[in-house]
Amino acid sequence: MLAALPYVATDETRPVLSGVTLVLGSPIEVAAGDGFTMSHQVLGLTFPLEEKAIVPARSVFILGHVFDKTPRTPPSTADSLISVITAKRQINIALIGENKLKVDFGQSASVVINLIQGNPPEWLQLIPKGEPILQSHLFAPQLEAAVKRVRDIARDSSGIVRMAFADGKLTVSATGEEQEIGATLDVISTQGEPGRTAINYNYLLRYLAGKQGIITLSKYDNTGPLVFEYQKSPRVLIMPMFVEWGDEKPQTPEETKPEPETIEEGPDDELIESGPEAIEEDHEPEPVAAAPTKTPAKRKRKR
Q1: I want to staple 16 with a disulfide (CB 3.0 to 4.6 A). Which of 114, 118, 149, 152 is the partner?
Q2: What value does the CA radius of gyration of the chain take, rounded to a whole number of Å?
Q3: What is the average pLDDT across 257-279?
Q4: Whole-prediction pTM value?
């Protein structure tokens, strides 16, 4: 639950996203998300009922603090100091009363939490399934250094960082109004190259912080989230950003020139702007990709 905290929403108007969701059952799963990123982890634990409970972020901090201060529970037949030192901490959880969760830390302490009311998103349905079309294994510190190198330019371009995989290498780049910067690094292995994607550098750096080993990046389709995995940490999903790449064919003047004797009529729907502020308040709380920068074609009506 503590590992899921960086991915909860801070927007108080969306309370169901401001806590960590416990998907109770067999097995117990932990999920959290803010509409653009999501954390998910399957635990080797079971619960006798199938329920969903949203634990407030502040309560997760408190549970972590109490857990750290709780003494270990040695076995009743401990015959040496070693078995006492290596004993595990044990907790018991139970749903009680009206929307409350009780957590017992052995015989030392108990915490009762008022859960967030409401139905959480269907987190498990948001996880991509099947075989990825692009998957790469690379060192987290090298990727973090490359992203930090280009972030100043990315900051001036809606936070977009481009990632292109080809010939056993990854090129990380960002494009500004009058300049472009890139960094190339070796990858351990890549399946499905050449391949490319774009992502917000803030989300990527938040995920990479503190990781020293090998991460796995998987892409399942061109519009769905990118999936990041690292050792026993939660699996993290980050929505990509849609960009125009340099080798894409631009429109010719003939394609953009309106036909004679026509009146152009603008689209009825407003475009959703790029960036976290683009999520509408009444939008379904699930990962939402930033909108493409290309303006949709206008409808035409004959006179």
Answers
A1: 118
A2: 24
A3: 37
A4: 0.76
